[in-house]
Amino acid sequence: MSPPAATFTEPSASFNSLSLKKDLQVRAASNGSEAKTLEAMANNWESNFSFAPIRESQVSRAMTRRYFADLDTYAESDIVIVGAGSCGLSTAYMLGKQRPDLKIAIIEASVSPGGGAWLGGQLFSAMVMRKPADAFLRDLGVPYEDEGAFVVVKHAALFTSTLLSKVLSFPNIKLFNATAVEDLITRPAPGAPGSVRIAGVVTNWTLVSMHHDDQSCMDPNTINAPLVISTTGHDGPFGAFCVKRLVSMQQIEKLGGMRGLDMNTAEDAIVKRTREVVPGLIVGGMELSEVDGANRMGPTFGAMALSGVKAAEEALRVIDLRKEENEY
Ligand SMILES: Cc1cc2nc3c(=O)[nH]c(=O)nc-3n(C[C@H](O)[C@H](O)[C@H](O)COP(=O)(O)OP(=O)(O)OC[C@H]3O[C@@H](n4cnc5c(N)ncnc54)[C@H](O)[C@@H]3O)c2cc1C
């Protein structure tokens, strides 16, 4: 029988999601319920199997308590990554590995993170990465076949799911999916009249963002952060978001527009030019091709991974300075 609502005691909610997680782990370990093995369940489904009783509100509270604690914790982040495609996730992986002290929020407009990296070109399974991006695969522990100048992962989803699982395992990284960045928070740039530095993001549920034209009163939410890393992919219904906003805010004159496909030129350019485009905003991955007028590369993904590595390197180079500027 389920516990009656009135007598069911919720664990005390903490407003810090990092300490809440620890608190819940301790409670789970000490509640005395014995963990069954799969072997014990095998062939015993009728006689020796049923799920532990639950009240529906426990499920709701288990989700909402954590989510709202996360919203509270990450309202002030050290770094916000916009877009959880191959570049954004690679950036998060590198930062998570090197800096467990930084609070990192990832905002992804889609319900499913991973961007375009669930398949190779034309919806084929295999993912091609040109060397030396194989170094990133070895670091992640993703197996591949060596074809000389390039390597092949047997299914792009193996790369993306491994990367995603590692990123989500870092205690200091929170992914908010189904959430779109719909504007940037700005502050006057120190010593540069007319220029701004980026000081965070304005967010909304993606479904709400898509209905601003036919619904009213749907104000957004905000996350303050001294550094934003934008990896929203090339131009499209959602892509190239932050750099298009830089143009409309007159912080860059115009977009270069992504050029035609040239794998050899494109991949080097994206990695080498991954940089802080305006103070507080690093741009990486295919979003950068829209700023610089770089070539597209088609279905070869090494540049996305290494652009993420470079974006993390750039972030760690400027984070202390941006934090100092972010006093207000
Ligand atoms: C859904 C999809 C399918 C694709 N399929 C193929 C394919 O089959 N073959 C091929 O060669 N290329 C494909 N591409 C293009 C190719 O995957 C990209 O060139 C490459 O993945 C770029 O990587 P990226 O990390 O820069 O950006 P992407 O992989 O495009 O990831 C960008 C992420 O940012 C998110 N995003 C965008 N705007 C916002 C915002 N305002 N707020 C929050 N999040 C935002 C997007 O939802 C996406 O998850 C696809 C791209 C997409 C998005």
UniProtKB/TrEMBL annotation:
Q: Name one GO biological process term.
A: thiamine biosynthetic process
On this chain, the residues bearing 2,3-didehydroalanine (Cys) are 217
Q: Where does substrate bind?
A: 87, 108-109, 116, 181, 219, 234, 286, 296-298
Cofactor(s) annotated in UniProt: Fe cation
- Post-translational modifications: During the catalytic reaction, a sulfide is transferred from Cys-217 to a reaction intermediate, generating a dehydroalanine residue.
- How does the annotation summarize its subunit structure? Homooctamer.
Q: What is this protein called?
A: Thiamine thiazole synthase
Organism of origin: Glonium stellatum
